[in-house]
Amino acid sequence: MCVAQVCAYKFGIPLHMVAVKPSYNVISPNSSTTGGSLTSEAVCYALIKACDILLERIKPIREKMKNPKWKDLINQCFSSNVMLSASGLIV
Predict the structure, then answer these.
(1) Exposure letters 54-87 (e unless 16+ CB within 10 A, then b)
(2) How far apart are alpha carbons 23 and 27 in whole angstroms?
(3) Which residues cross the membrane (predicted)?
């Protein structure tokens, strides 16, 4: 739940608009085992980094629109071929 909350906060959207999908080796290859609360913190940090990348890509479209709703903004980004997928790496 904390990952969804972080995502909603970073994008400034309601929590109900965030969907968390289960992880499996096709989506996240090379993932390591988890243990303790460190995993949650690491995932949230990676999510923040990925959200920052997406917000930077979305910024030019958002600036062209006047106070867009999230769905309208994302639809326009999709129509403008903005890559709406990103990943954060913890180094």
Answers:
(1) beeebeebeeeeeebeeeebbebbeeeebeeeee
(2) 6
(3) none
Best CA proximity match to 49, nearest among 15, 17, 90, 13: 90
Locate 56 and state its tokens.
Answer: 């930077």
pLDDT in tens, 22-70: 766 666 666 666 666 667 788 888 899 999 999 999 999 999 999 999 9
Residue 61 has a pLDDT of 97
Give pLDDT, residue 22: 72
CB 76 within 8 A of CB 65: yes
Q: Is 90 exposed, middle or buried (0-12, 13-18, 19+ CB in 10 A)?
A: exposed
What's this model's pTM, rounded to 2 decimal places? Answer: 0.81
Measured distance CA(76)–CA(8) in Å, rounded = 20
